[in-house]
Amino acid sequence: MSPKTLLEAIQHGLADAGKTADGVAPPAAILWTDPDGQWRPLVEPLRKLVPHLYALGPYDPEHKTGPAIWLKCVVDRALPDLDLPADAIPVLYLPGVARAVLRSAEDCPPAHQPLVELCYRGQTWHHRNGRDWTVEGFVEAVLEIDLAGDQATRKALLRMLPRVATEPVVSLLGRRIDAENLLKLDVDDPVGDLLSWMSEPGAFRQRCDDGKWQSIRQLWLKTYGFDPEADGVTAAGDKLVNDQSPTWAGVWRRFCAAPKLYPGLSKVLRMSYKDLFAGSDRNPRFNEDGEVKLRAGLEAAVDLPHQDACDKVIALEAEHADRRNSPWAELGESPLADALQPLAKLAQMARSGLGGANAAAMADAYAADGWRCDRAALEALTKAMAHKPQAGLLCRVIRALYLPWLDQSARHLQDLLGASDTAASALVHPFTPEAGTCFLFVDGLRYDVAMALKEQLEGLQLPCTAGHRFAPLPTVTATAKPVAMPVGPIIGPGGAPEDFCPHLSGTTAAAGVLKLRQALEQKGAVIVAPASPQGPARAGDVGWCETGKLDELGHKLDIGLVRQIEDELSDLVMLIDSLLSVGWPRVRIVTDHGWLLMPDGLPKVDLPKSVTSAKWARCAAVKDGASPGAATFPWYWDPHVRIAMPPGVGSYLANAAYAHGGISPQECVIPELTVSRGAAPISATIKQVGWRGLRVRIKVETSTPGLAVDLRQKRNNPGTSIAASVKELKDTGEASLAVEDDSNMGTAAFVVVLDTDGNVIAAQMTTVGDE
């Protein structure tokens, strides 16, 4: 979710600085260096959002300020009565301290030297170029606000920083902000004052002298119809909840724009006991009641037959979807409603099983649309893990929706392949060399994850085509990886079925990682290091590069894998871009197998140990002459070796939440992507956005014909369009869009410019109806 104010943007930035991969220790502290002390005025208001914020300064523990040695004691939890939870990462604001000086111990002043070692135990929050964040740099780079570059604007920005920090970002977008715009914010803000008083009445009153307070009383009595002294904060809460006049509607919109700035307001609104108009979402009690009702509905869905469970979740989504647009959702008070959206998508897709007249047709059906059910399950799991108190219930619902669909699909594919010993092998097609292509092997790149990678690449204007192929059996790396190598036959007869690892051609050596790489080099392939990729020496070179930790993380983290997928995709995009940049005309992304992921583990299937020489979760090597009492399939590299496979998505090992090696579309149907360097990116700049009522006039500067504009609540989601229709730009670069639903008045939206394929190439935030 995009930050709505400068304070929220800082909060998000500090939180991101503390993120680490699963299995990696979090930083001991976040260091916020500020050599010029520009950010000092925001320390106190920021503590509403970042409670564990400590500042370098005179010793004043009550206000969380102290010298370097005191801050060091805070980080090490060495102080009595320190209100710092064990799992919290303290943020150390360091005015007058530069990151470069702190990292150079010799140049660091003695007073700051206790902090030097925290540069290595902790994480410094800074610009991606390594420099300390300045206010101007942060506002331009993170909030994408167009600031005038003159000295007067810089001075005004620093002077008005406390006021700018609480201003909705959307009100500063779409125009060039100069000193005059900033100084105008210094006028009285009656709506902001009213919300601040309702949130913290005592603290607000202390900030006002008697004269100002009396003026505020008269203004609020005249404008809002209540006296803060005579009527109190409860009366204001009743009006905010129940009064549907334009005046109070404006107050509500201001609160919705940045609810985290008014943390006490939720408590005030809970004190309202008047009858509420139908459909109100202004009282948090409605949201609380909705969450209780939704929890009961989800718990009931878990025990229903599969089709009924899907229908139940879809019905719950229709009932509770609107609560995701309330400020209570942004305040984290609607976790079940937030998690319901991907659950409903999963329920919709899991209602129909995956079919096909033969294995090839089923693979085509999975590659066309079936993978979307797996993506919905990953999205639902991601939400579940983000809402830990509700994670148990959400995982049970995911299992109830996903497991029957997954099992039915696997059983159908197993039936199709079990008709013939050669059916599975006939679907496997090894790669052949392609001049000028770098093959990028990504371990465990499941089809749905590959489609997310394709979308990211296309978003960067990198043309990407997708295909699919069938993995050899069993679907494990040792068996499947050699097939993905583009240098002809390098595997000979024989191997070690206990490890499912074949022999190199003409040897009795196992085809392990190093041996395979050496064989590739002998065949003339260029081995490309992912850390420092190099391009081809000759036009006809074939490259080989290996990367990716999806499979490793899955075995290590089980369902915790979902938290790492985005980071893995980001790393892949960067590597692919680097390979193209160093001269490879094409990058072909290949993999070995997919995988299954199921909360609470795959169903356990028994298999006697006496009949197997090796047993994994989804496959087992059967001893010669043994009868395992289970379906068996030939090993791809030696058809005389039999591999037992559990039925459906069963597992021979207990509590296996992540597994591969068996037969299912998710394990067997694997992607192949081909990426090339596209044409020069299309350039388009939104120069003007002007509202008149519910119609917006847009002017775009571009030299490319055929572009169009849309108005969306979410930038990259065409399903959130609120425009009556998408409009193509005129030759002058102008277009006009109408918003048909007047309930969108005053809401935030994105004006987006689209290329001829519907990709977003420029975007700008706006407020519907903002004059």
Report strand order across the widest sheet. 9-21-14-8-13-12
Count of discrete alpha- or pi-helical segments spanning 4 or more residues = 28
Backbone shape: globular
Radius of gyration: 30 Å
Provide the residue-averaged pLDDT. 88
- Tell me roughly what share of residues is in helical segments: 25-40%
In whole angstroms, the N-to-C terminal distance is: 25 Å
Overall number of strands? 28
Strand content: 15-25%
Protein name: BREX-1 system phosphatase PglZ type B
Keywords: Plasmid
Notes on the protein architecture:
The protein is an alpha/beta fold and 771 residues long. It has 6 domains: 128 residues, no CATH class; 81 residues, no CATH class; 134 residues, no CATH class; 175 residues; 59 residues, no CATH class; 84 residues, Immunoglobulins (Immunoglobulin-like, Sandwich). The chain is 38% helix and 17% strand. Strands 9-21-14-8-13-12 form a 6-stranded mixed sheet. It has a 5-stranded parallel sheet with strand order 3-2-4-1-5. The protein has a 4-stranded antiparallel sheet with strand order 16-17-19-18, with no helix packed on it.
